[in-house]
Design goal:
Layout lengths: L2 H11 L4 E3 H6 L5 H8 L3 E5 L2 E4 L6 H8 L4 E2 L1 H7 L10 E6 L12 E6 L1 H4 L3 E5 L5 E5 L1 H10 L5 H13 L5 H10 L3 H11 L1
Parallel strand pairs: 5-6
Antiparallel strand pairs: 1-3, 2-3, 4-5, 7-8
Pfam family, one: AbiEi_4
Organism: Hornefia butyriciproducens
Protein name: Abortive phage infection protein
Length: about 200
């Protein structure tokens, strides 16, 4: 099969407009074909080993997570994605396990949070990005605990999110308290809940 045919098939099979160096290598092609496609304007390089069709609608939430697969959207960004904040984040916040270090993270327009591995896994859910692609984000209960735990979150955003949560029919106070216990913010969560419930 011709190189062009193989590349065409890989690009057509891509539902999200991306292609990786690993896919090209697995198909038996040399990765230099990707650079040729970049040179002719058909693709652009989004990050190490990740290329995007120039004609594809760019979904930053999705592409950033493809680039940094261990990153989970959290804090103010998670509130926005979960519909609990109307403020579009100027900088996305992602949480990584402690010890995960990629030098290129410093060049991105993201706020990096790190947690111990035992606190990294719980509360991860998959939702659709505003453009309809699958992304991983911490659930609402985890996000509320995270924003109460750290500093740097706007007190208005926190207060509004807690109010909306307290009024929500889908709130899970038991889960919120479990998370609060594990993340050591139970007194803060109890304070908000006593005022709002």
């Amino acid at each position: 099969m011709e190189i062009n045919e193989t590349i065409s098939e890989l690009l057509q099979a891509s539902t999200d407009g991306t292609i990786t160096t690993a896919q090209v290598t697995k198909a038996g092609l040399h990765r230099s074909v990707l650079q040729k496609l970049v040179d002719c304007g058909e693709l652009y390089r989004y990050g190490r080993g990740l290329y995007v069709k120039s004609s594809a609608w760019e979904d930053d939430f999705y592409l950033l997570q493809r680039k940094y697969e261990r990153g989970i959207y959290s804090h103010d960004t998670a509130l926005y994605l979960l519909g609990y904040s109307d403020r579009t984040p100027a900088k996305y916040t992602m949480t990584f396990p402690k010890g995960y270090n990629t030098p290129s993270l410093k060049q991105e327009n993201i706020t990096v949070k790190r947690v111990v591995p035992k606190n990294y896994e719980f509360g991860i859910i998959e939702i659709q990005s505003p453009s309809g692609n699958p992304i991983r984000v911490y659930d609402l209960e985890r996000t509320l605990c995270d924003i109460l735990r750290g500093s740097g979150s706007d007190i208005q955003i926190v207060g509004e999110a807690m109010k909306r949560y307290a009024a929500s029919k889908t709130k899970d106070i038991h889960k919120l308290m479990q998370y609060a216990e594990q993340l050591r913010v139970k007194p803060k969560v109890l304070h908000y809940m006593e005022v709002l419930l």
